[in-house]
Amino acid sequence: MKTKIEKQKEEKNINQKMEGRSLWADGWIRLKRNKLAMFGMWLIIIICLAAIFAPYITRYDPNEQFIWTEGPSAKLVPPCSKYWFGTDVYGRDIYTRVIYGARISLQIGFAATAISVIIGVILGSIAGYYGGIIDDFISWLTNVIFAFPFLLFVLALVAYLPPSLPLLYMAIGVISWASFARVARGQVIQLKEMEFVEAATAIGSHDKRIIFKHILPNILAPIIVQTTLEIGSIIMLESSLSFLGFGIQPPKPAWGYMISEGKQYFLSGQWWWSVFPGLAIMILVLGFNLFGDGLRDALDPRLKQ
Amino acid sequence: MLNYVIRRLVGAIPVLIGVIAVVFILTTIVPGDPARIMMGQRGNPETIAKIRHEMGLDKPLSIQFLDFMKNALTLNLGKSYRNNMTVVEAITTRIPVTFKLAFFAIVIAILVGVPLGIISAVKQYSWIDYGAMFFAILGISAPVFWVALLSVVLFCVILGWIPGTGTGNGELIYYVLPSIVLGLRPAALIARLTRSSMLEIVRQDYIRTARAKGLSERVVIMRHALRNALIPVVTVIGIEVASLLSGVVITEQIFSLPGIGRLSVEALTNRDFPVIRGVVLFMAFIFVLANLIVDLSYPFFDPRIKYD
Prior knowledge:
The structure holds 2 protein chains of 2 kinds. By secondary structure, chain A is mostly helical. Chain A has helices spanning 2-19, 23-33, 35-52, 54-57, 66-70, 94-130, 132-146, 150-160, 165-176, 178-191, 195-202, 207-244, 255-267, 272-299. Chain B is mainly alpha-helical. Chain B contains 12 helices and no strands. In chain B, helix 7 (144-158) crosses helix 8. The interface between A and B is large, with 45 and 45 residues.
């Protein structure tokens, strides 16, 4: 595995000599050439913008029930020019709810991933750097966490905790750090054998400095790739939780819960309540997957053609 | 051989102990008293105290943990709060349904994923390649429960090919849709992985040698390349078992299949803690077992890996 790093470094050196570009600039150039990755990036950007500017691109309030103002005729209206994605059984505008739902999904995606990156990278680096018993213990913990089916584990945790958003972030984050720990540990083990780390030790740098100044910046690329993919899967996880009724509490417009609410009506032909939120989940997760795949290809020069 | 098996088995023990410990920690941070939940509102303090004593809830945590560990290893997981079944009974009666579902899903995933991956790699950059990889990334990005719902509407309501959800009288037709839906994600992952590992391998020298000595492309791909390309795929199948078990929870819920997944959702809704404990433990055990099987099967795919 050492050869991989050496090759990476060699290539980096060559590139820098020729054109004076960093790994990141180089990666960005490769990424820009990858049409699918750019497509994914734009999907993410558009949905983020929609979530931020939700009040400006929707005409109604997500919890506004038109059955009170317009009577039963506002119930389950099919998509039309007034209600772009139709309305649900309470006469709420589904387009508005889908747009506001992006806020919830993105919030959970970013917050829970941030927690798992922090826990995972810290534990993984410690395990990789110190080795020995510490490594054995952390690796054991990682394997144990991996042994649980993710969804069931979070479900059990959420069922035991009182419903609240921060607790949901914590619950998901506390369980999904294991993949980051594995990546970080593997990278650190490779890096700590390298000359620049040895040199830093030789001039008397302490562990903290070596870890933060010399090792962490070098493991950033694989962590970023993993993070991008993880955000997608956490968004998916949250929607599954909400679908089963254990995630976000109504009336907040969580996509998964909307699909579950619309389920009965879908079977009898009123498809819009379930279909649009599902499309939204798929598009957002697709965005993160395409972008993450592209990042991996761009930042991992091994696969360069 | 025996040595290797024993070493792997012993290696799984610490993980199993960890799993039991995590489940114990998880279920003892419960806000709320299990005895009270079991008795509902009508229980008077004396009966609750009696039940607490019977359940060992009045003992110190460390003793409770050792008891729990002992009970978990002897499969003595207590009784469901809701009905009089023991947890082990509740789980074993649900196993056949889940096993069938997971088995069919894995078979479908392999039968679809591996050929798609091979074709995509052999015909790299063709429309088949783009089509297959587009299908694969959609399969990974679409939520399982949503795809399940769409497929029920399409095949049961609109086309009427499948009689509906549930298990009927146990006919296999009821497993067709759930297995396909559940197999979709692993199929997509296997297809992507087979493709990339195949692409890496066809660039190696021994493949050039095989071609140079005049073997047909078919023999080169199927006999020389595929066997090596499948090694990472086998690993992923082992890892995917965990997400398959998560998928089971959702798929069984939507298709009303009375398996372990549905049992777990029922238990969670009813706050039936012994059953939740039991199911989480059971699924983690299955995962450890599946990965043990994967580990033991490597030498079959790659004779360079020795058992000792």
